[in-house]
Amino acid sequence: MSIACHFSKKISFLITLSILFLTGITSCRRLELPANAQQSTTSPANLVYSPYQSVVQLGQAGSASAPSVNNGGEPVVYSISAGSSTGISIDASTGVISWTDAVPAGTYHLTVVATNSIGSASCTYTIIVQSTGGGAGSLSNLTYTPDSASVYHGSSGMSQTPMITGTPSSYSISGAPAGVSINAATGVISWSNSVDYGNYSFSVTASNSTGSASTVYKLVIKLNPDDYLTPRYTVSVTSNVAYGPTSGSFHLVDVYSPVGDNHTKRPAFMFLHGGGFQSSGTKTESYVVEFCTYMAKCGYVAFAPNYNEGNGHTLPQNLAAAKDADLCLQWIRNNGATYQYDPTYLFVGGGSAGAHLACNFNFFDGSSNYGGYQMNLTNIIAFADCWGSSPDRDR
């Protein structure tokens, strides 16, 4: 059976399993308590204001929308931890926050608490009162809490409203990637689902007529596994690229790249061929080509190297092969910019003797059997023993 068939059957199985699971949930009968049964009270949960902030001009009174909350089975009482002395108050029964026209210019981060007889839930609401004409007074202490975000690729989101001493007239960012923007009035940073993988640090500046204050915000866009489950690209192959210094066929690798993928930081996959460590094994075996082609269609950059072989299953031969695999993976770490992948996302696998080699590669412990040799496992996310086993004498 082909490797692609194995993959398609696995994916079909997972999809079918998910459908059955969801169908089972929706088809279950809902258990209902008798009308006269008393439901137990729990603590409030999921207290949320939408929107979670208001931006107003100095001298402008107003109020927020009522929050949503899971009250735990009985009415809750709302309170705020600060703000009453500045003209800001809350309706204890509805949670509606109000402010008078006498509230001074500034940024007010209010902690709202909803309480019942069992416990409480809390959230933050922000009121930004802007001075007419751009605010007076010097600016300092510009701070985001938290000052970073880490999300999967394909997810949009936004930061919290920053805290600052003084009243800014506007916010701006510099050094941010495409797809990241800032609300000039509130300082809230937003990012779209199109931002590519990467670790980004950019400067945020708040300004008014008297000066400015700056801080750094960090955004990490992580590789999303969901992006690499479905074949969607065509594939180009670059054959016989040298990854080592010696002559001959051992230090050559074929590179399979997805065509039409606009990502510049993709995962990399090294697949090791089989052949019993005899001279018959090669990176051009049909299953190697099929496997690497499939992975590239899913968005990986796949690498199929040759490695030292010819003496069969012996400890010296296994060590020589493992050293070549280590050499090739180090070459892969150094060539991410050339083939547009992220060398911090490395996957290793193999079939038959290649699976044996992948196992030994990932579990070398520097034992005397291999002369104390240590592998470089930096940034290896996972390895796959696709099929095959090792003789006891060199496992």
Distance between the termini: 27 Å
The total of beta strands comes to 24
| Molecular shape | elongated
Strand order of the largest sheet: 19-20-22-21-23-24
SSE string: HEEEEEEEEEEEEEEEEEEEEEHEHHEHE
> Gyration radius, to the nearest Å?
30 Å
- Quaternary structure type: single chain
Q: What would you call the structural class?
A: alpha+beta
Query: Averaged pLDDT, please?
Result: 82
Q: What characterizes the major β-sheet?
A: 6 strands, mixed
Number of helices: 5
The amount of helix comes to 10-25%
- Please mark out the parts with pLDDT under 50 across 5 or more consecutive residues, or reply none: 1-38
Task: Provide the β-strand percentage band.
Answer: 25-35%
What does this structure look like?
- With 395 residues, the chain is of the alpha+beta class.
- It is 18% helix and 34% strand.
- The strands form seven sheets. A six-stranded mixed β-sheet has the order 19-20-22-21-23-24, sandwiched between helices.
- A hairpin with a 4-residue loop joins strand 8 (106-115) and strand 9 (120-130).
- Helix 3 crosses helix 5.
- The chain is elongated, with a radius of gyration of 30 Å.
- Mean pLDDT is 82; it is low at 1-38.
What's the arrangement of secondary structure elements?
Elements (H helix, E strand, L loop, with lengths): L2 H25 L17 E4 L4 E5 L4 E2 L4 E3 L6 E4 L7 E3 L6 E3 L6 E10 L4 E11 L9 E4 L4 E5 L4 E2 L4 E3 L4 E5 L5 E3 L6 E3 L6 E11 L2 E12 L11 E9 L9 E8 L8 E5 L13 H12 L3 E5 L9 H19 L2 H4 L6 E6 L1 H11 L16 E8 L8
Parallel strand pairs: 2-9, 11-18, 21-22, 21-23, 23-24
Antiparallel strand pairs: 1-4, 3-7, 5-8, 6-7, 8-9, 10-13, 12-16, 14-17, 15-16, 17-18, 19-20, 20-22
Helix pairs in contact: 3-5
